[in-house]
């Protein structure tokens, strides 16, 4: 039986099968709540601030904080800018965001530069308190400013180990709870939708084509749809598909990854053809790119760790040796079972 277990474990290691898995616990409920106090010129009632603004205007906004616990609670208000990603809009402090991956195309539209918030707010048990913050509208006349206020409260310390180790050391982590309330300020003059793209690059680690998509308008753009096609040097379509629906913050950009779906992956020159649809407007782009041999090798290695969908134009000797070793292992395992004979009394067949 021990030999069989050894065989099975060895097969799992060679085949890259997972031996163990686990799940993280879900977070508990929030200790506080935030309700906006809509100003008189609120454009809509959607649970966030959406107001018009004029250049040089000082806007004061209010919210109600409620402590839902039986102890005092400190709440901090942190201004955030709006950024875009492949999954939608997210809010982050400019000092913490990766500006290489998620740049703003015009820093003048970063809302955090114009927001003034109070210091830490201390709430007594079950207290509801009105707080306010201000936005100094910059000298800009076109488009939209978008950001948010993040309300953050300390939620205790969690011990990541059930017990301390032999040295008495514990692994502790501070937990925080946060609520984001968006702030959208529409400047006097509206702008039309506009999109652009950068140069595509094949990323072997992601096994896909990466291209920067840019919202070049100072406009919150929702429901952007699109299609893509990869063509070879003979303008033959290697593969094509629909892009996921995009939502982009004003004057923002991000890297969109198109997974390689062709049956083969070869070092060669290609062309990426993109068409975006926004309202009644279409934006089309053709961009050439090259996949080199090193990219193919990296992609093949990454693919072996996931799934064998993509094949290169040749097979390396070590790949053949690996496959032969797997077949030999299976043969030895079956031969071992046949040589065992009848099971002993009281034992169970495998």
Structural commentary:
With about 350 residues, the protein is mostly beta strands. About 15% of the residues lie in helices and about 45% in strands. A hairpin with a 2-residue loop joins β18 and β19 (about 280-290). Residues about 1-30, about 310-320 and about 335-350 have low confidence and may be disordered.
Task: Identify the notable features of this structure and list them briefly.
350 residues; mainly beta; 6-stranded mixed beta sheet; 4-stranded antiparallel beta sheet; 3 helices; 14% helix; flat
**Poorly predicted runs of 5 or more residues:** 1-28, 312-318, 337-350
Number of helices: 3
Structural class, from helix and strand content? mainly beta
User: What share of the residues lie within helices?
Assistant: 10-25%
Shape: flat
Overall pLDDT score: 83
Number of strands: 20
Could you state the order of secondary-structure elements as H and E? Answer: HEEEEEEEEEEEEEEEEEEEHEH
N-to-C CA distance: 8 Å
